[in-house]
Amino acid sequence: MLTHHWKAEALLEGDWRGASCVLLTNGCEPLLVDTGMPHDAHRLLAALAQRGFEPSDIRIIINTHFHLDHVSNNCLFPRSAIYATQESYDWCHALYADLVDAVNWKTRVLKYYPEMGEYPEIEHLMDGVRRVALRWWDSSRSGLASQFRWIERHALPDGIAAVVTHGHVPGHVSLLTQDSDGTTVVAGDALLTRTHDDQVLTMIPRWRAEYLAGRQKILSIAGRIIPGHDRAFINVPADEPSAVPLGKPAKL
Predict the structure, then answer these.
(1) How does pLDDT run across 82-123, given as a tens digit for each residue?
(2) Three-class secondary structure of residue 178 per DSSP
(3) Closest among 55, 52, 56, 43 to 10, alpha carbons compared
(4) N or C: which terminus of the chain has fewer CB atoms within 10 Å of its end residue's CB?
(5) Distance between CA 247 and CA 252 in Å, rounded?
């Protein structure tokens, strides 16, 4: 049972190429869930400033996983503790190291995505993923070793529960919080969008069946859901088609 209330607000709304960055506040110190791409740094800092916060006010970051569109502005918060799973950190950092290998990357990437052969136009997709990695991946932007608090060994702040959803990457976590309006799920990429996952420029799942099971797990929760690459919506599990988007649909 979640006994502490946290208000969740999307500072940067997710879209077809950029991840959601979410502010959690409980009347004391604010925290961030995911920090976005390098080119969104100014937008993230401006959104915080509009709410009266400076980077030094953010003492905790929680990363759902370590794909670069979720962690590349961790470096803006050098005083923050960073909560995440070591499983996701190790897997994603190894993936990017192999993706930037000019000679062997096509062979090496198979160990991360053993189901690649099941996807049409996979070579085109992975070429695009590699181009993004070559342009944007910088492991130092995801944080310093001294900042990490691995969720496998450290409890999250009171009132925030982790739901492990491995399908997108091993060790991916979605987060549950509550406030006076009910439950909010910060889904990360366990739920890319409400209905258009195929239109998001991100990685294929590590395991498709497990990803779909994790997605369904998220959609079984009544309340407000903030997807990784879409706007928030109100979810009604007993009648999924009646889910109510909050604002205009994302441009996908």
Answers:
(1) 999 999 999 999 999 999 999 999 999 999 999 999 988 888
(2) strand
(3) 43
(4) N
(5) 14
The tokens describing 163, both together, are 């739901």
Structure tokens given for 95: 């993936």
| Dist CA 80 CA 94 (whole Å) | 24
Phi, psi of 194 (to 5 degrees): -65, -40
Computed from CA positions of residues 77, 78, 83, 84, in that sequence, does the dihedral angle turn out positive or negative? positive
β-bridge partners, 163? 174
CA dist 234 to 13, 212, 237, Å? 15, 20, 10
Tens of pLDDT, residues 42-62: 999 999 999 999 999 999 999
Higher-confidence position of 23 and 128: 23
Which positions ≥6 away from 165 have C-beta within 8 Å? 172, 173, 174, 187, 188, 190, 214, 215, 217, 218
Taking Cα atoms as reference points, which of 228, 232, 236 lies closest to residue 247? Answer: 232
Sheet with 81-84, side-by-side order of all strands = 7-12, 21-25, 31-33, 60-62, 81-84, 148-150
From CA 55, how far away is CA 178, in angstroms rounded?
25
How many Cβ atoms are within 10 Å of 201's Cβ, its own excluded? Answer: 14
Which sign, positive or negative, has the C-alpha torsion 85, 87, 90, 91?
negative
pTM above 0.90, yes or no: yes
Strand partners, 22: 10, 33
What is the token pair recorded at 12? 């940067």
